[in-house]
Amino acid sequence: MRSRLILPGLTALLAVCCLLALGMGSVHVPLTEIFHRLWAALCGHGTGDLFDAILFQTRLPRIILAAAVGASLALAGVAAQSLFQNPLAGPHVIGVSNGAALGAVAGMLIFVGRMGGNHWVVALCSLAGGIVTTFGVFILARRARHLGYALLLAGIAVGALCSALTAGALYLSGEQLANIVFWLMGGLWRANWREVEMVVPVLLMSFLMLRLFASEMNAVLIGERPARDLGVDVTRLQYVLIAAVAVPTAVAVGLTGVIGFIGLIVPHLMRMTVGEDHRRLVPASALGGAILLVIADTAARTLAAPAEVPVGILTALIGAPVFLWFLQRRVKRGGDA
Amino acid sequence: MILEASHITFAYPETGPVLRGVDLRLEPGTVTGLFGPNGGGKSTLLRCLNGVLRSESGQVTLDGRPLRNFSPREVARRIAVVPQESRADLSLTVYEMVMLGRYPHTDLWGDETQKDRDAVAASLTKVRAERLAQRPFNHLSGGERQRVVVARALAQEAEVLLLDEPATHLDIAHQLELYQLLQALACQGYAILLVSHDLLLAPLFLDRAVLLAGGAVVASGAPGEILSADHMRAAFGVDLAVTWTDGQRMTVQLPRLFSESFRHGGALR
């Protein structure tokens, strides 16, 4: 009974967080004013004044982008944890974050100076970097008997290589260094409706895929062999999961830099709340990731206003201790982390 | 539902041939035991029988229809497997664990129907684990876990049941309980294959037994016949024979070497 209330509860919490976040910032907008203007905009007679511009051109796309990126990263985390059969795995494990970051940095250094700061180019380079890395890791690991372990090891090695190349590129980047480093820390200050249009379809696709494969993800909990005995096509599921880790992560990194720990921590928190059943875990994680990043991003843009803290620093500051707490719990329970 | 393997061969790329032309027939209402030394091909044969491994030559048929014409989910609706070992660290409840056995019957979204819930409840009753339903799987004892895994296989509502050394970690009371359950299930029409190392207790509950060594069938027939000294020597390479009188009293003849060294109080070398 309790678990039936969790999904509607999380949805309501997300709506409340979004509304509060809309009002917060350098210009405070009261809640009644927000409702009034939202209603007017929905009915098609928004005034288009300064308040409307702040609400609908600056804050709303940023909040929706935060929610969509948070949900995407959390779903990528669910997929990674199912792929590796380890609740402490995250989207970074197969090297996709590092690969996407390398692609994005290369894109910035090669194209942005010449093309007047076109963010789409950077996003595409990042996507390419993430996909190529994942593909490379997959090719390296494919022939091994235990795809999970081989992917993990190849992912660590390839991820480290990408980090080294990124560091090398930064060393050579000259005057662009500050920009790129700031971007790498992760942030949503460039958010606009075009980025929302790019992330939301990817989010919906990955949600639909994972929800469709939820019962298969449940079945592989008991192990690869017994799952095959139940009629699960484990190989197909692994391919789906690799794509569900790589694509949303690469897109998110391309648009917002590296925002860590959401993919690691949200699925784990949700597992403690709704249990192991992926039919509930998938929607709960999407909602949880959205809520967490909306809150973190609102904090990032208001805590040190008018300056802005990169949200990646905040999520890591909160995430790392929580992650350590999980590890402690597992060690105490005698489980192998 | 008759599951039949004819002349099947199988080889792993690293280790070479494991099965060399094996014939096996499982019929409804019978419990068949599959014995043999470690590495003799028992588990490989079991995995060929449900199509998870594809045999290189020969074929496995279900009521005359080749197994490779069935989809994996279709096979799982007809053949259920109780695996050798289960992950013990899962925090799923027993009910959720048994519900996984309904996977081959679920629709695209994986939603549970009343039929699924009934099947799970009936399976839990059959293994007498109803009161465990809401307990987490990782809080159970070894014997309880094994009963739950059997319940998961029963929830598949298959007609063939393949068990891979299900009694290995059970004490003798739980072993007896499991064997009696298998007999009862056979009476309900299941065709059952029991892979086992238990040459002493298990044969008492079998209708037929098959001895597999070196990837080939050494002997098959009534359990009393195949456990003769000659067959034991051929399969396991030890001088050992098990005989029963009236299917109740059992005599084990130990190898002479062992019994003599015991008698003289000497250490085994």
Your description of this structure?
The complex is a heterodimer of chains A (337) and B (269). With 337 residues, chain A is mostly helical. Chain A has helices spanning 2-23, 31-42, 50-84, 96-115, 119-141, 147-171, 177-184, 193-212, 214-219, 224-229, 234-256, 262-274, 278-302, 311-333. In chain A, helix 4 (96-115) packs parallel to helix 11 (234-256). Chain A starts with a helix and ends with a helix. Chain B is of the alpha/beta class and 269 residues long. Helices cover 31% and strands 26% of the residues of chain B. In chain B, strand 1 (3-12) and strand 2 form a beta hairpin.
Question: How do you describe this structure in short?
Answer:
With 337 residues, chain A is an all-alpha fold.
Major beta sheet of chain B, specifics?
Answer: 6 strands, mixed
CATH topology-level name of chain B: Rossmann fold
Radius of gyration of chain B: 20 Å
Structural class of chain B: alpha/beta
**Number of domain modules of chain B:** 1
**Based on the structure given, which CATH architecture of chain B is correct?**
3-Layer(aba) Sandwich
* C-alpha end-to-end distance of chain B: 49 Å
Determine the N-to-C terminus distance of chain A.
31 Å
The low-confidence parts of chain A are none
How large is the count of helical segments of chain B? 9
Strand proportion of chain B, as a percent range, falls in 25-35%
What's the level 1 CATH class of chain B? Alpha Beta
Instruction: Give the helix proportion of chain A (percent range).
Output: over 70%
Q: SSE order of chain A, as H and E?
A: HHHHHHHHHHHHHH
- Number of strand segments of chain B: 12
Question: Could you describe the largest sheet of chain A, including whether it forms a barrel?
Answer: none
Radius of gyration of chain A: 20 Å
CATH superfamily of chain B: P-loop containing nucleotide triphosphate hydrolases
